[in-house]
Design a protein that fits this description.
heterodimer, A: mainly alpha, 66% helix, 0% strand, B: 2 domains, 6-stranded antiparallel sheet, 20 helices, 6 strands
């Protein structure tokens, strides 16, 4: 993602590879933007159309409560997706490294 | 009588403090180096660090403040839960791993990793101290609010006790003991809040139709500072009386008297169809020192309780009106909460206590799990307190412990003791952050004083005592403020001063040291100035009418966070151009 990639550190103090760090940062940025969009909708609705939140779309619970609880759950779900993606990325890179000598 | 000193609560509290101090002295014997003292040597396991994140972050504001706001104003308090949790998304996806890669002890390390600039070290250290002290005030106020019902001591005694215990924790073993105290506190807080919510659901909703439950109450403060309750002196003796606990359901759907046990969704849907009694107040002043506050019941539909902006006394009352400024004030607060978490120095330093970036990531995910679960529970906790029949109409901060009291004395004792531990965990984290800024950024970094490891630890301990004393004094001075409200200010200052620099350092190659320094200074000064000139401060601190305030709304974030970014970009571009011109001139 042009312009959003992290700047590499001149003094790495960690053994995780720079390439993986950059890839993780890209995943993180995409997931961050997803959450930001949903959070933004929630905040703007509360500010400018609060009556929308009075609707009872499901199980007799209003949209304000469902949306609010949903945002908390979404944060956890995205965090787990991020963990899974980062894990896959590391596994993928490790495989690539281990295959290098045989090429 | 709402409050009476509980020997069980005192016993459990003393036990918690003894365990906490025992842990601190145990780790203290093993912590000798600066890396060990300020960052636990980077050896904390990621799961422990994740739970410690929860222990660090779930402060008195979350436990006492949010629960109180929901109990008094309904859904509006829950907006804070959502904002506080959302901030962790920024921390995980944007800040955690790069920060771990770039720094060692303090967040100034990360900001300064490319520049070695004294300006960055100084401005980041001052920002850390300002934010930490702003955040310390509500924690200490929360401690004072708890001591009264527990021991019957005045507010200042609670502040003093917490201050002394926390300074002992930090002085003995720094970040190691702080981490394990936070781990213990985070675990206990989430587990016992869950237990409390299960008990709320098990009890269900029941109507209280006793007319006394809805009787008006008055509190008159007379010239010598003494109080009259409903016209009689406050107390438990003959001819004296005290405030009556309040908060109940006045109508259930289908004219039921009680529902019996409810599921988590059912609890909300039945409450939506019910009617509850909320309490409002009007104050009449007579002269300078005498005033009478009347507390009166207002039957409120459950649907209104569960909607944003419906309570006229809430900070978000303007959401349902036509005026634009209250809406901007709300947007500003939600922006500050979103951006503030990843800018809080005591949260950021926790990334240095684990060994690598993967551990930083995993511990943040564990933290989000614990914190998210807790914030879901706050909705039930607050609503449960609202209808518990145990609320103190004069003090929203006590809603959670009093809710526990509505079940039994043991639970009240445990929850009160956990609330105390909550304060201990967060305050010790804040003091470690502040001491790191003093020793590492200011003395070693800015002033360039060469210190041995032993000297760094010794000066760090002296700084911890100093910050602890400042926290005690401020905690006593700000007694009357709602703790959650004060934390909102700390988030605004942190987000305005620190986030622009952190984000731009990571994602914009043109960032210069001058840009970072300017952004921190402008963000911090502008947000502080805005807060001091706002209507909320006029009303709560200066005792002046809010409409005389100079700034148009109280929350600064929507102005001062973008201002930090703009200043950083403009100063970076300007200083880069000047630097290039100087280089060309030197070459010529």
């Amino acid at each position: 993602m042009a312009g959003l990639d992290p700047i590499s550190s001149p003094t790495p103090v960690d053994n995780e590879m720079e390439k993986i760090s950059a890839r993780n940062a890209r995943y993180g940025m995409v997931l961050f933007l997803v959450y930001l969009a949903v959070y933004g909708v929630y905040v703007v609705l509360n500010a400018f159309k609060p009556t929308v939140m009075d609707a009872l779309p499901l199980l007799g619970v209003n949209l304000a409560v469902l949306f609010g609880l949903g945002l908390i759950v979404l944060a956890l779900v995205l965090a787990l997706v991020y963990a899974w993606l980062c894990r896959s990325a590391r596994n993928g890179s490790n495989e690539a490294i281990s295959q290098e000598p045989s090429r | 009588m709402i409050y009476n000193a509980s020997p069980i609560a005192v016993g459990i509290f003393v036990l918690f403090v003894a365990i906490t101090l025992g842990l601190s002295f145990y780790f203290g014997r093993r912590t000798k180096s600066a890396a060990g003292y300020f960052a636990a040597g980077g050896e904390i396991p990621w799961f422990v660090n994740g739970v410690a994140f929860a222990g660090d972050y779930l402060s008195a504001a979350s436990f006492l403040g949010i629960c109180g706001m929901i109990a008094f104003y309904g859904y509006d308090g829950f907006l804070y839960s959502i904002g506080y949790l959302a901030g962790w998304v920024v921390a995980l996806f944007v800040i955690a791993e790069p920060l771990k890669r770039l720094g060692r002890f303090t967040f100034a390390d990360a900001l300064d990793s490319r520049f070695n600039s004294r300006g960055i070290k100084l401005s980041a250290a001052v920002s850390t101290l300002v934010v930490s002290i702003f955040y310390l005030i509500p924690q200490m106020v929360g401690a004072g609010a708890l001591i009264k019902p527990l021991l019957g001591f005045p507010h200042y005694a609670g502040v003093l006790m917490v201050g002394v215990v926390v300074v002992l924790i930090v002085v003995t073993a720094g970040m190691v003991s702080t981490t394990y105290v936070q781990f213990m506190k985070g675990s206990l807080l989430v587990i016992f809040t869950f237990v409390l919510v299960l008990m709320i659901l098990q009890r269900g909703l029941r109507v209280d139709d006793n007319p006394q439950a809805s009787a008006v109450q008055t509190v008159t403060t007379i010239d010598d500072g003494k109080k009259l309750i409903n016209g009689l002196p406050q107390g438990t003796g003959k001819g004296q009386t005290d405030l009556r606990p309040v908060g109940h359901v006045s109508k259930l759907p289908g004219d039921l008297k009680e529902t019996g046990p409810l599921g988590p969704i059912e609890f909300l849907s039945v409450l939506q169809e019910s009617e509850v009694i909320l309490w409002r107040s009007e104050t009449e002043r007579k002269g300078d020192k005498q005033s009478t506050t009347t507390y009166y019941p207002v039957p409120t539909s459950g649907a209104d309780v569960l909607q944003p902006g419906t309570h006229p006394k809430s900070k978000f009352a303007g959401l349902r009106g036509d005026r634009l400024l209250p809406k901007i004030n709300f947007l500003s607060l939600m922006l500050a909460l979103f951006c503030g978490t990843a800018s809080l120095p005591h949260i950021l330093i926790r990334y240095y206590t684990v060994k690598d970036q993967a551990s930083a990531r995993k511990s943040t995910i564990v933290g989000i799990g614990c914190i998210g679960f807790f914030y879901v529970l706050t909705l039930y906790l607050g609503l449960g307190a609202m209808i518990s029949g145990q609320l103190d109409v004069t003090n929203s901060n006590m809603a959670a412990p009093l809710l526990a009291k509505s079940f039994n004395e043991w639970l009240f004792a445990i929850i009160s003791a956990i609330a105390f531990t909550t304060v201990l965990g967060t305050v010790s984290g804040l003091i470690v952050a502040a001491t790191g800024a003093v020793v590492h950024d200011l003395i070693s970094g800015f002033f360039g004083v060469k210190l041995t490891d032993h000297e760094k630890v010794r000066i760090g301990k002296m700084a911890a005592v100093t910050v602890g004393v400042i926290a005690i004094v401020l905690g006593i001075l700000f007694e009357k403020m709602n703790v959650n409200f004060l934390v909102g200010w700390a988030f605004s200052v942190a987000a305005s001063a620190n986030l622009p620099s952190l984000v731009m350092l990571l994602f914009w190659k043109q960032t210069t040291k001058q840009g970072i320094t300017a952004a921190i200074v402008v963000g911090m000064v502008s947000s502080l100035a805005w807060i001091l000139l706002s209507g909320d401060t006029y009303l709560a601190v200066y005792d002046l009418p809010a409409d005389q305030a100079i700034v148009p709304f109280s929350q600064p974030g929507i102005v001062t966070i973008p201002l930090g970014f703009i200043v950083l970009i403009v100063v970076s571009l300007f200083s880069r151009r000047t630097g290039t011109a100087d280089a060309i001139a030197r070459a010529g």
